[in-house]
């Protein structure tokens, strides 16, 4: 049973460019959440997708957008990259949106470096 | 808003010694609290969670945590450290009515022989 898979694992971009990160949830999971983890910090919630809609959003600008497909896979898009966007981007999936009744399973992340 | 503070960015213990990682929370509503572990170059793994049932929560790998409302704490403990416990540990509190997590900055646990 494959867990949460993310691609690419590493990438380098320059300021102003756009990036797309991809995530396949764990089998049987229908909800995908994205977190940003800066170096030496804890993860910060970006947004959550359920039934192909953004259900919850953290304190991130509109440059961060996402999408969820009918097969529950998801993309995170970041436009107009800034140096401060350099981080590990973690995708997490769950069965249902609630963390009280469910459990988040995290992927290994996509490490983005912005030069 | 709910938040957590982890006391001590680095903790070092000897193999076989007690592990104690500290977490204090701030919440205007009864909190749901979590501990996650992150090994190098891996994603986060849930160790345990408190959801207002028993105040002493047992998790995987011999870890447990006790919810103390009077102290607004949720410290993580393990009676005897193993070398394999060396990792980054994150305390988190639920936000957005249980749909997202607010993480602390993490505590790096070093286990020495």
Give keywords.
heterodimer, A: 115 residues, mainly beta, 50% strand, B: 113 residues, six-stranded mixed β-sheet, five-stranded antiparallel β-sheet
In words, what does this structure look like?
The complex is a heterodimer of chains A (115) and B (113). Chain A has 115 residues and is mostly beta strands. In chain A, 0% of the residues lie in helices and 50% in strands. Chain A has no helices and eleven strands. Chain A has strands at 5-7, 10-13, 19-24, 31-37, 44-50, 53-57, 64-68, 74-78, 87-94, 105-106, 110-114. In chain A, the strands form two sheets. In chain A, strands 2, 4, 5, 6, 9, 10 and 11 form a seven-stranded mixed beta sheet that branches. In chain A, strands 1-3-8-7 form a four-stranded antiparallel beta sheet, with no helix packed on it. In chain A, a hairpin with a 5-residue loop joins β7 and β8. Chain A starts with a strand and ends with a strand. The mean pLDDT of chain A is 94. Chain B is mostly beta strands and 113 residues long. Chain B is 0% helix and 57% strand. In chain B, the strands form two sheets. In chain B, strands 2, 4, 5, 9, 10 and 11 form a six-stranded mixed beta sheet that branches. Chain B has a five-stranded antiparallel beta sheet with strand order 1-3-8-7-6, with no helix packed on it. In chain B, a hairpin with a 5-residue loop joins β6 (56-58) and β7 (64-68). The termini of chain B are far apart. The A-B interface holds A 4, 33, 35, 40-45, 48, 55-56, 58, 90, 92, 97-100, 103-109 and B 32, 34, 41-46, 49, 51, 90, 92, 94-96, 98-106.
